[in-house]
Amino acid sequence: MTKNMNGEFLDGHDNCIICGRNNPFSLGLKFQPVSGIGGNGGNAVEAAFTGGPHLQGYEGILHGGVISAVLDSAMAHCLLVQDIKAVTGDLRVRFLHAIPCTSKVIIRAWLTCAVSTLYELKAEARVDGKLVARAKAKFMQKEGVK
Asked: CA torsion sign, 97 to 45 to 137 to 37?
């Protein structure tokens, strides 16, 4: 479960497949606000998770869809911690190296640009400090999103 910049838990994600505490299939990621990432002060989040064979695509390799979903979620949480509710409009993921299923993966996301209700963010996945995947996305603020 993620907290906003004031330390309050965010509502509406209890059943999320990535971070939901009420979803038995959730990966259980807990995104935390961090600073010093992406050169933008405090507009960033970080989380870690360890995969497993239930998340593999090819044998022993973490499924690309899982990494894509986690990167997307990290960027959404980067906005959520700032009390911005927005949906993904465009997501581009670049896979740089195969990620072994049982690796501990560090996910980071940060805001790069905000214009009115449109936001551009970047995210990355690292294993043992090595950049293994990166993403760039555009989000649009949406009323009524919970």
From this structure: negative
C-alpha triplet 40, 45, 46: angle, nearest 5°: 125
- Using the 8-state DSSP alphabet, how is residue 54 labeled? G
Q: Write the DSSP string, 105-138.
A: EEEEEEEEEEETTEEEEEEEEEETTEEEEEEEEE
Beta strands 130-141 and 86-95, pairing class: antiparallel
CA angle 135, 62, 50 (to 5 degrees): 90
CA distances in angstroms from 9 to 21, 77, 86, 94, 109, listed in the order given: 12, 12, 17, 31, 19
At 50-91, the pLDDT tens digits run 999 999 999 999 999 999 999 999 999 999 998 899 999 999
- Percentage of the chain modeled with pLDDT above 90: 67
Q: Kindly report each contact of residues 123-130 with a partner whose C-beta sits within 8 Å and lies 24 or more positions away, as own/partner.
A: 123/71, 123/72, 123/74, 123/75, 123/78, 124/71, 125/67, 125/70, 125/71, 125/99, 127/97, 127/99, 127/100, 127/103, 128/103, 130/97
